[in-house]
């Protein structure tokens, strides 16, 4: 193990132990001597790397569920009791989560773990030799901490600002406006020292452009977060990225390729991405597991599935075996709502983004029907006749019906149930992985978001710059997504719909719905219109360990 990382991990472990024992007067830096303090950029990066590892595990699981299933974009129903999981997913959909909700507690803990790691690492770096490498490393850490606090600001609002290590003790809630100001000031302070290079050398790492993208997102939501608009500031942050000339909108023909297992630093649209690798031991991307219909394992080579020596038209799913055939089944519980799909993806047949969805009859790559063998009762659990074998053409139904229980959103545990719900394959399954883990990297900030954020800020009253208009900016994106005629006008409602098409499955829908005043609308099985649910509750476990915390209103 790298000596800098080894010493860092020992100190962090000691710091966590002492924090749990409240012996905050102890300074855990005795393991360091001059010869093990990082000096070069590579040495600083070897220590910071563990923070990115924690981000990887957090982003595609708890954070994804909290941001997407609480929106109209995704749903994870129950299948005859399967995936009930203490109502964790259905509560997110119905908007009746409590302060004991498991995934909400997870994202709180994950975000504060990132904060703590950044605080500890900055403390350790304080005695490292002065110079550009140290300044850049500290700026990177401040930006990562600001990102974690932006997540907390967005999801929980009034949260403690714990920025000192060793900690002086538990902190009371700061106001949402105070957290906003902290994130803003940290990013501004870090910007002059952050790297400006793009490409493989900084891929998946904080750069000046990532910090500006985060600033733009912060300013775009300023009315929600802090009560006053900052649209001109949003435009200025977007212009920093645009004027750099480092990024471009991916062409229509390669739009979906930027989410494939082979994505990476060659794609000019990525400003900041979370890299995933199925060979690593912490932080996997499981989207194929969650999103693929259970009968599509072989077609998409899920987890090493293969048709063996058979041609596709010889295979009936659940029937053929032998001759090297492997049929690993994905879990397949996640889907989108027909209302979301019909609102945004049936209006333009020439839009490449339509191709991220699986709906209707399914076929093998050679065009032959994908057939599935079961029994009549296995196909429909309510069937009461003789239970003969039954072969059917796989059909993914856009309509989701809670056939067993509308309260728990239980669809049943038969083929009809598991085939309900349009599936998303934007993050295309990894055919080269022999496990359920994928090699697709997940973008957090893309250049198309910069253009659409600037367009929205202009539509909301910001001053246009660089000869751009809201319409020209939106058409910069659309001209690379559809061969249809460019738009002649654009409204905020148009932009809201365009963001739905562009950023599906990328953790932005909840944020967009709140900013556009849509979060309380009814959709799917959700009828709850409580406005206080724009914020999640502070978890019971957090309040139990910090008696200074005050719960968010409504909980």
Hey, roughly how much beta strand do the residues contain? 5-15%
Q: How many strands, which pairing sense, and closed or not: the largest β-sheet?
A: 3 strands, mixed
Widest beta sheet: strand line-up: 2-5-6
C-alpha Rg (nearest Å)? 24 Å
Helix percent reads 25-40%
CA-based shape: globular
Succession of helices and strands = HHHHHHHHHHEHEHEEEHEEHEEHHHHH
Count of DSSP-assigned helices: 19
N→C terminal distance: 46 Å
Uncertain segments: 10-33
Average pLDDT figure: 92
Total number of beta strands: 9
Structural class: mainly alpha
What are the SSEs and their pairings?
Layout: H1 3-21, H2 41-59, H3 62-69, H4 88-94, H5 102-125, H6 132-155, H7 176-190, H8 208-220, H9 222-226, H10 231-244, E1 270-274, H11 287-291, E2 316-317, H12 338-344, E3 357-358, E4 360-361, E5 371-375, H13 376-379, E6 389-393, E7 395-396, H14 415-418, E8 423-424, E9 442-446, H15 447-459, H16 470-478, H17 492-502, H18 509-515, H19 540-545
Tags for this entry?
555 residues, three-stranded mixed β-sheet, two-stranded antiparallel sheet, 5% strand, globular
Description:
- With 555 residues, the protein is mainly alpha-helical.
- The chain is built from 19 helices and 9 strands.
- The chain has helices at residues 3-21, 41-59, 62-69, 88-94, 102-125, 132-155, 176-190, 208-220, 222-226, 231-244, 287-291, 338-344, 376-379, 415-418, 447-459, 470-478, 492-502, 509-515, 540-545, and strands at 270-274, 316-317, 357-358, 360-361, 371-375, 389-393, 395-396, 423-424, 442-446.
- The strands form 4 sheets. The protein has a 3-stranded mixed beta sheet. It has a two-stranded antiparallel sheet with strand order 1-9. The chain has a two-stranded antiparallel ribbon with strand order 3-8.
- The two termini are 46 Å apart.
- The model is unreliable at 10-33 (pLDDT under 50).
């Amino acid at each position: 193990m790298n000596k800098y990382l080894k010493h860092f991990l020992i100190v962090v472990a000691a710091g966590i132990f002492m924090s749990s024992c409240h012996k905050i007067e102890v300074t855990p830096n005795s393991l360091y001597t001059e010869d093990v303090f990082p000096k070069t950029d590579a040495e600083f990066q070897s220590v910071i790397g563990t923070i990115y590892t924690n981000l990887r595990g957090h982003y595609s699981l708890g954070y994804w569920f909290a941001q997407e299933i609480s929106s109209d974009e995704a749903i994870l129903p129950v299948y005859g009791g399967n995936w009930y999981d203490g109502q964790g997913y259905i509560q997110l959909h119905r908007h009746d989560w409590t302060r004991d909700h498991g995934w909400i507690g997870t994202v709180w803990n994950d975000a504060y773990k990132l904060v703590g790691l950044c605080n500890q690492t900055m403390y350790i770096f304080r005695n490292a030799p002065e110079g550009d490498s140290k300044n850049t490393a500290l700026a990177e850490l401040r930006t990562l901490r600001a990102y974690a606090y932006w997540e907390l600001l967005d999801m929980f609002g009034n949260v403690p600002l714990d920025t000192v290590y060793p900690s002086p003790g538990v902190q009371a809630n700061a106001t949402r406006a105070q957290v906003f100001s902290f994130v803003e000031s940290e990013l501004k302070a870090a910007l002059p020292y952050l790297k400006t290079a793009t490409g493989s050398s900084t891929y998946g790492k904080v750069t000046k452009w990532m910090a500006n993208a985060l600033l733009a997102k912060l300013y775009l939501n300023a009315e929600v977060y802090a009560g006053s608009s900052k649209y001109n500031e949003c435009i200025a942050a977007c212009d920093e990225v645009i004027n750099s000339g480092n990024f471009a909108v991916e062409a229509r023909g390669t739009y979906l390729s930027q989410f494939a297992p082979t994505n990476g630093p060659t794609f000019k649209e990525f400003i900041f991405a979370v890299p995933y690798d199925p060979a690593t031991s912490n932080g996997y991307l499981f989207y194929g597991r969650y999103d693929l219909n259970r009968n599509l394992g072989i077609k998409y080579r899920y987890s090493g599935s293969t048709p063996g020596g058979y041609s596709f038209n010889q295979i009936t799913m659940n029937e053929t075996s032998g001759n090297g055939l492997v049929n690993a089944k994905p879990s397949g519980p996640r889907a989108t709502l027909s209302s979301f799909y019909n609102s945004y993806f049936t209006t333009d047949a020439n839009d490449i983004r339509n191709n991220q969805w699986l709906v209707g009859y399914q076929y093998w790559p050679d065009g032959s029907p994908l057939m599935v063998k079961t029994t009549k009762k296995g196909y429909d659990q309510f069937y009461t006749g003789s239970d003969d074998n039954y072969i059917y053409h796989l059909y993914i139904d856009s309509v989701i019906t809670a056939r067993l229980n509308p309260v728990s959103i239980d669809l049943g545990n038969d083929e009809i149930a598991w085939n309900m719900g349009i599936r998303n394959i934007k993050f295309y399954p990894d055919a080269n992985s022999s496990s359920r883990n994928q090699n697709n990297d997940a973008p957090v900030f893309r250049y198309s978001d910069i253009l659409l954020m600037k367009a929205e800020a202009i539509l909301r009253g910001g001053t246009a710059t660089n000869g751009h208009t809201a319409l020209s900016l939106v058409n910069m994106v659309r001209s690379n997504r559809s061969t249809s005629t460019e738009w002649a006008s654009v409204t905020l409602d148009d932009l809201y719909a365009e963001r739905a098409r562009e950023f599906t499955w990328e953790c932005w829908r909840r944020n967009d719905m709140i900013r556009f005043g849509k979060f309380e609308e009814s959709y799917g099985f959700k009828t709850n219109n409580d406005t206080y649910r724009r914020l999640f509750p502070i978890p019971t476990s957090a309040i139990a360990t910090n008696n200074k915390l005050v719960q968010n209103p409504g909980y």
